[in-house]
Amino acid sequence: MNEAGKNISSLLLGQRFKTFVVGRRAYTVYSPSIKVICRAIGEFADIDIPEQGTLADMVRAVPGCSQKILRGIACLVAGNADGWEGVRDRIAGELEEGTPGEINGALNACVSLIQGSDFFACAALAMSVARMAATPR
């Protein structure tokens, strides 16, 4: 329960973040809200790579897929900024300068902030509070 409390408090205080470098620029992404996660998933959901296709088919799909990946990462970096769409587009344009390895590292950094353990910690805290409220004194 103590670890769960630490996780939730650091999440609420904005202390959970990752920094990554793409194209000689550093970006910081903070733990995203549900709204921001949904925006990014909207971009990632449009990725279409043929599962049974040939290597040539997969290579032809790369340009469209890479733009969706960059926009998804940019959504997570932009967060809840005012005018987030413009911020997302600017960041996605900057991310185009990165290497595939840098983009992979950026996506790993972003996904590492979206963990089921946060939800389980929140549920454990809620259950603890419910027990405290139900316990007669």
The order of strands across the largest sheet is: 1-2
**Percentage of residues in strands:** 5-15%
Count of helical stretches: 6
The largest sheet is: 2 strands, antiparallel
Q: What separation lies between the terminal Cα atoms?
A: 21 Å
Rg of Cα set: 19 Å
Structural class: mainly alpha
What general outline do the C-alpha atoms trace? Answer: elongated
What's the helical proportion of residues? 55-70%
How many beta-strand runs?
2
Give the H and E element order.
HEEHHHHH
Weakly predicted, low-confidence segments: none
Question: Average pLDDT value?
Answer: 84
What can you tell me about this protein's structure?
The chain is mostly helical and 137 residues long. Helices cover 66% and strands 9% of the residues. The protein has a two-stranded antiparallel sheet. Strand 1 and strand 2 form a beta hairpin. The protein is elongated, with a radius of gyration of 19 Å. 21% of the residues are buried.
